Amino acid sequence: MNKIRTTAILAATALTIGLTSLTAHADADADSATPQEVITKVWGAAKFLQTKGISGIAALNNADGPWVWKDTYVFAFDCRMDRMVAHPFRPDLVGRPIMQITDSNGKHIFKELCAAAGHKNGGWVDYMWTKPGAGNASRKVSYAVTAEMAFSSGIQLAAGVYDDALTVEALDALTAQMADPTKYVH
């Protein structure tokens, strides 16, 4: 019984520490996207594509559009077809294969994003990527979901935050809370 209680206390502490770092991230820089904004924008983009269908893809490719904010953006990809569907800052990637793309550490970025997008509420993946306007790669943690569209098996959408401290576990807990507010820790 004590082991269960200890495990529960450790889990609650880890969640609190993770959420504290999420709050610290939000306060750190008003020009940096927050994880909460990323989740909201990705869910909004998924609903947008469900409503607009394939005609909504053009809006995702627009660098001045509603899916680009602060220091990040929503991008779309098709895991089944192995291709980039929309990227507002990398038009050279649109229509190209994605599964072989690796970061500077050899991580297959899109293989992991596809796996994360397959979860019920989506999921987070960390990797190295160049921040818009920056010359060097930074640690990026992206949230991915699948948008169900008519006459399609689905398009995956993602957006991320550039942060060295956030953990995937804390971000997954945040996502669960936003998807089901009854999961908030009191």
Q: Can you describe what's shown?
A:
With 186 residues, the chain is α+β, with helices and mostly antiparallel strands. The chain has a single domain (35-178), classed as PAS domain (Beta-Lactamase, 2-Layer Sandwich). The chain contains 5 helices and 7 strands, in the order H-H-H-E-E-E-E-H-E-E-E-H. It has helices at residues 2-28, 35-52, 57-61, 109-117, 168-179, and strands at residues 68-69, 72-73, 75-78, 83-86, 123-130, 137-147, 155-162. The strands form 2 sheets. It has a 5-stranded antiparallel sheet. It has a two-stranded antiparallel sheet with strand order 1-2. Helix 1 (2-28) packs across helix 5 (168-179).
Task: Identify the notable features of this structure and list them briefly.
186 residues; alpha+beta; 5-stranded antiparallel beta sheet; 5 helices; globular
CATH fold name, please? Beta-Lactamase
C-alpha Rg (nearest Å): 17 Å
Beta-strand content bin: 15-25%
Strand segment count: 7
| Tertiary shape | globular
Assigned CATH architecture: 2-Layer Sandwich
What is the CA–CA distance across the termini?
22 Å
Biggest sheet, open or closed, and with what strands and sense?
A: 5 strands, antiparallel
Uncertain spans: 4-18
Largest beta sheet: strand ordering:
4-3-7-6-5
Helix fraction? 25-40%
Main location: membrane
Subcellular location: Cell membrane
Signal peptide: 1-26
Keywords: Cell membrane, Membrane, Signal, Transmembrane, Transmembrane helix
